[in-house]
Amino acid sequence: SNLRFSDDTTFIAASQEELVALLNILEQHSAACGLGINYNKTKVIIVDREHDNHREIKSIGRCVVVQSFVYLGSLIDNSGS
């Protein structure tokens, strides 16, 4: 599933594999239109309280995993608050 606003897109995935598949689809469709993904600006946040948000995972695909980021002017973090 995904949410889009202007040039921002948010993917919601249940697993790393699903996220990588979504990113691959985005990359393929973007390339077909002559567009690319700026992986320097692409971030992943993991929210999984049962496993302490998987802090050991540093990247998924070519995307860096972060604990928080600003999206549309709002701070999003993996604490759920």
Structure commentary:
With 81 residues, this protein is of the alpha+beta class. The protein has one domain (2-77). 21% of the residues lie in helices and 31% in strands. It is built from one helix and seven strands, in the order ββαβββββ. The protein has one helix spanning 16-32; strands at 2-5, 8-11, 43-45, 59-60, 63-66, 68-71, 74-77. It has a three-stranded mixed beta sheet with strand order 3-5-4. Strand 4 and strand 5 (63-66) form a beta hairpin. The two termini are 22 Å apart. The mean pLDDT is 81.
Strand order in space, largest sheet: 3-5-4
Q: Give the termini separation.
A: 22 Å
> What is the ordering of alpha helices and beta strands?
EEHEEEEE
Query: Cα-atom Rg, whole angstroms?
Result: 13 Å
Beta-strand segment tally:
7
Structural class: alpha+beta
Protein name: Reverse transcriptase domain-containing protein
Domain Reverse transcriptase: 1-76
Structure summarized in a few sentences:
This protein is an alpha+beta fold. The chain has one domain (2-77). It has one helix at 16-32, and strands spanning 2-5, 8-11, 43-45, 59-60, 63-66, 68-71, 74-77.
Write the layout of secondary structure elements.
Elements (H helix, E strand, L loop, with lengths): L1 E4 L2 E4 L4 H17 L10 E3 L13 E2 L2 E4 L1 E4 L2 E4 L4
Descriptive terms for the model:
alpha+beta, three-stranded mixed sheet, two-stranded antiparallel ribbon, 81 residues
